[in-house]
Amino acid sequence: MKIVYFAWVRERIGKAEEMLDPPPAVRTIGDLIGWLAGRGEEYAQAFAAPRSIRAAIDRTHVKPETAIAGAREIAFFPPMTGG
Amino acid sequence: MKIVYFAWVRERIGKAEEMLDPPPAVRTIGDLIGWLAGRGEEYAQAFAAPRSIRAAIDRTHVKPETAIAGAREIAFFPPMTGG
Amino acid sequence: MPVPLTIRIQQNDFDVAAEIAALTRGRADIGAVVNFIGICRGRDDGHDVTALTLEHYPGMAEAEIGRHADEACKRWPLAGLTIIHRHGRIEPGENIVLVVTASAHREAAFQAAEFLMDYLKANAPFWKREESAQGTAWVEARLGDDAAAARWTKP
Amino acid sequence: MPVPLTIRIQQNDFDVAAEIAALTRGRADIGAVVNFIGICRGRDDGHDVTALTLEHYPGMAEAEIGRHADEACKRWPLAGLTIIHRHGRIEPGENIVLVVTASAHREAAFQAAEFLMDYLKANAPFWKREESAQGTAWVEARLGDDAAAARWTKP
Predict the structure, then answer these.
(1) CATH number for the domain including D129?
(2) Does the ipTM exceed 0.90?
(3) R_g over Cα of chain C
(4) What is the rounded CA–CA span in Å between residue C33 and residue D37?
(5) Is D155 contained in some domain?
(6) Neighbouring subunits of A (3+ Cβ pairs under 8 A)
(7) What is the residue extent of each domain of chain A?
(8) Which conformational region is residue D88 in: left (phi greater than 0), alpha (psi within -120 to 50 degrees), or beta?
(9) Which chain B residues are closer than 8 Å to C117 by Cβ?
(10) Is B12 exposed, middle or buried (0-12, 13-18, 19+ CB in 10 A)?
(11) Which residues in chain D are contacts of A6 at CB distance < 8 A?
């Protein structure tokens, strides 16, 4: 699946998007955050405060407990500051 | 004192303003409405429904029980419909 | 610094963009501008309206709007405020009233604009006469307008 | 008739007067237009801001704003709705966001504009990075913004 990052999540990870194939045990957004945080120092930093991370599946806001099965594009970003 | 009329109050009375000197017994706005209503058919019609009449003394909204002593200009008009 | 305040009662139309520019030009402290524009409708309560004629009480209109503008400036941290109300004959689609509020944040700008419009509707000495195919008639005050104004009264 | 709806995410500035004219032209049923304009401030939390850079999530920004626009059209009797949000580098005094709501009466226009701004602030995928003499830093979400959005949630 395609994972995309925005704002300081993108900056800390050092890339805007990547294709990843998490193992089957990674079922929810929360699981995915934990799995990503273990991929290296830059990921650990980006996901150090999971409560400051928002997520979207296929361009719709979702919660940490939302299942990721069938997702084409998952996005991680800080709380929005538009408007 | 100067009495001024607006909107349908003005139309019914047939004039926009006049100088009047009500007797001393006319103490409040409510008294003045009663006294004016007795001045002729056109006034009776204008003040037929006193609850639909608003008043101002010297360009400030007032209530029927407000005293008119010292007023320079008293205005009568229907509920406002601006904005 | 006193809040820049513009109040005009005029027959001519107003230019919304020019009024916004006048309030915001050279200011770095304004993060939110709210405008309310009241427009003459061509239909009211199911009948066609040819035009409105707005009568007002010169002197009191300015004073009454000024009192409410001062009250808005006391209640909310405004950076600027403009209120323009037209009088005379106005055809459907034409502007009637403009309120522009500016503030650092949106809450104050929205609240002050709503407050001012509710008060203008219920208290500013203007009266609308409607022209239609049926002749001319004075517009009756909406029942809700006094209630809308009352919600801003402190308990 | 569906409500005329314009949503644009763009780098360029917008023209408030042109957007109002586009919504109201030829309409006799609009009595109230409310505009909200969000502007880049030159000072935030006591420090000078040189510029903001707005990052957004292309595709999701349009979708998210579209969902809230549809919700606003369901909740209030709107006659037209325009939402424009800029991205890229924006200097103090420049416009960031525009919401224009049109309705027969003022209540719907005000309520819909406030609802949309509260939702945009809390939910539209945009992020502000601030440039100042101290360098650049991502703007933190205001604590009140989630609460402001939550007040529109039906019980």
Answers:
(1) 3.90.1170.40
(2) yes
(3) 16
(4) 5
(5) no
(6) D
(7) 27-62
(8) left
(9) 83
(10) middle
(11) 55, 57, 125, 127
H/E stretch holding D110 reads helix D106-123
The Cα A65–Cα A55 span in angstroms is: 11
In chain C, the number of structural domains is 1
**Cα dihedral: B33, B65, C121, D29 (round 10):** -50
Domain that holds residue C10: 5-149
Asked if residue D142 is part of any domain, the answer here is yes
The beta-carbon neighbor of A83 closest among D57, D60, D120 is D120
C&D contacts, CB < 8 Å:
99
Residues of D in contact with C149 (CB under 8 A): none
Asked if residue D54 belongs to a domain, the reply is: yes
Answer yes or no: is C23 within a domain.
Answer: yes
Confidence of residue C102 (pLDDT cuts 50, 70, 90): very high
Scanning the structure block, which residue is given the tokens 């407990």? A65
Q: What percent of chain D has pLDDT over 90?
A: 84
pLDDT value at A74 more than 80:
yes
CA C39/CA C98 separation, integer angstroms = 9
pLDDT digits (tens, 9 = 90+) for C79-100: 999 999 999 999 999 999 999 9
- Cα(C94)–Cα(D79) distance, rounded to whole angstroms? 16
What are the tens digits of pLDDT across the range D61-101?
A: 999 999 999 999 999 999 999 999 999 999 999 999 999 99
Estimate to the nearest angstrom the gap between the alpha carbon of C90 and the chain centroid. 15
How are the residues of chain C apportioned to helix, strand and coil, as percentages rounded to the nearest 5? Answer: 35, 35, 30
Give the chain A residue whose CA is nearest to the CA of D38: A83
What SS3 class is residue B14? coil
Residues of B in contact with C129 (CB under 8 A): 7
**D5: three-class secondary structure by DSSP:** strand
Identify any residues that bridge with B18 across adjacent strands, giving them in sequence order: B3
